[in-house]
Amino acid sequence: MLKKLKEEVRQYLISRFDLPSIEEKLKGNELNKFINNIIKEVAAQKEIILSPAEHAKLLNEIMDELISLGPLKSLIEDPQISEIMVNGPGQIYVERNGRMELTNIKFDSQQHLLYTIEKIISATGRRVDESSPYVDFSLYDGSRVNIILPPLSLVGPVITIRKFSPEISKVEDLVRLGSLTQRMADFLISAIRAKLNIIFSGATGAGKTTTLNVLSSYIPNDERIVTIEDTAELRLHQEHIVRLETRPPNTEGRGEVTIRDLFKNSLRMRPNRIIIGEIRSGEALDLIQAICSGHTGSLAIVHANSPQDVISRVEMMISMSGINIPIWMIRKQIVNAIDLIVHLEQFLDGKRRITHLTEVRELKNDEITLTDLFRFEQEGIDKDGKIFGKWVTTGIRPLFLSEFQKRGIDLSPESFNP
After folding, report:
1. Tell me, what CATH number does 203's domain have?
2. What confidence tier does 367 reach under pLDDT thresholds 50, 70, 90?
3. Quick check: 161 and 73 in contact, CB under 8 A?
4. What pTM was computed for the model?
5. Are residues 82 and 198 in the same domain?
């Protein structure tokens, strides 16, 4: 009975009121009184008599939905949860401390889930409906959201929320969490300040964006930074930042603005640094050419399974640019443009680690030579399922050390000793 009445109240509110404007106008006790009266009115219409306890429970649940995200509220507030996956109204998974688990939380119905989707998306200016059945966007706190609706999704509306973690803001936080060693951290900070061109790579959920976010905070405050993203996730704290975001096509299929469009425009904006949220296509060629023409210090993300796979994917994406370039010339430009690959993995125990710091070293017999400077070597798994191993320094000194000296970065060559 209570569940049915709650749905009736929800439908009453959706059909008769502009909920965002109500939330804006009514605060605290006023909103509470308003919802209280609606419950009484709907209960009277349906000839349902509620006990004081039932009335209070229903009021609290409706208020939770109005001022927060209903069933998702507790999951969003849990600091141990990094990802929330809603597979239709009856199934919600989370990633907690790096492990996937099914929760006992459910939505009352598909309508309840759709109502929550409207609530999540209302403040973003985006839309998701039959004509545009999937969408990516960021919440005010930097969390990334993807929504896809039926009939594309056969299990009902699906929400995937990757939560932004404010606890990871400095490289010391990554060291504390076991993502890298202090020695590696000192090297990466120096690499950022020396304006090396760095690719952050790994699979989905490996921690690429978080690591880029952290390291980009070491860009000097007097530089002009242009960020280019599909969905704004980067949270930089410097003063001089220009943030650009792509635009999907409208209902008529027009007006799309791609990463490549924004990148070409950014070159006319006098950037000291360009940061690309993710390279997916022909913009790889534009980035490589821009770096070769003097736009150093660029940072970008590439989905890849290994440092070697980064090179293969960049080659493939350059070939997608529509310009016919010989493979030897593509490789020569890649070697000239990319200095360092920071590769990350999420291990079986849920921990995210930088597994390779790899120099893009030289072109030898028309093949690109990569050299690991640091790498993680897994030694085993303990009885609790935790991975153990160690980071090793290969002892090879990178060819780009001269860039450190040129910019007055004090990094001893002994940093690379085994």
Report:
1. 3.40.50.300
2. very high
3. no
4. 0.83
5. no
Q: Which of 115, 141, 164 is the last residue of a domain?
A: 164
- Residues 353, 185: contact at Cβ < 8 Å? no
Q: 156 and 283, same structural domain?
A: no
Q: For strand 340-346 and strand 273-276, is the pairing parallel, antiparallel, or unpaired?
A: unpaired
How many helices and strands in the chain, by DSSP H and E?
14, 15
Please name which of 406, 328, 403 lies closest in space to residue 368, comparing C-alpha atoms.
Answer: 328
Q: Could you list the beta-strand ranges (E) of 158-224.
A: 158-162, 198-202
Cβ-in-10-Å burial (0-12, 13-18, 19+) of 214 comes to: buried
The DSSP result for 371-400, as a single string, is: EEEEEEEEEEE-TTS-EEEEEEE--PPPTT
| DSSP β-ladder status, 92-96 and 81-87 | antiparallel
Confidence of residue 91 (pLDDT cuts 50, 70, 90): very high
Of 276 and 294, which is predicted with more confidence?
Answer: 276
Residue 242 is inside which H or E element, if any?
Answer: strand 241-245
Q: Which of 298, 107, 286 is nearest to 200 (CA)?
A: 298
Give burial (CB, 10 Å; 0-12/13-18/19+) of 24.
Answer: exposed
**Same domain as 129, residue 198:** no
User: Residue 95 in contact with residue 83, Cβ under 8 Å?
Assistant: yes
Residue 302 confidence class, pLDDT cut points 50, 70, 90: very high
Facing residues of 347 across strands? none
Number of domains in the chain: 3
Classify residue 228 as exposed, middle or buried by CB count within 10 Å of its CB (0-12, 13-18, 19+).
buried
Q: Same domain for 27 and 87?
A: no
137, 164, 191: which is the final residue of a domain? 164
Containing domain of residue 212, as a range? 171-416
SS3 state at 410: coil
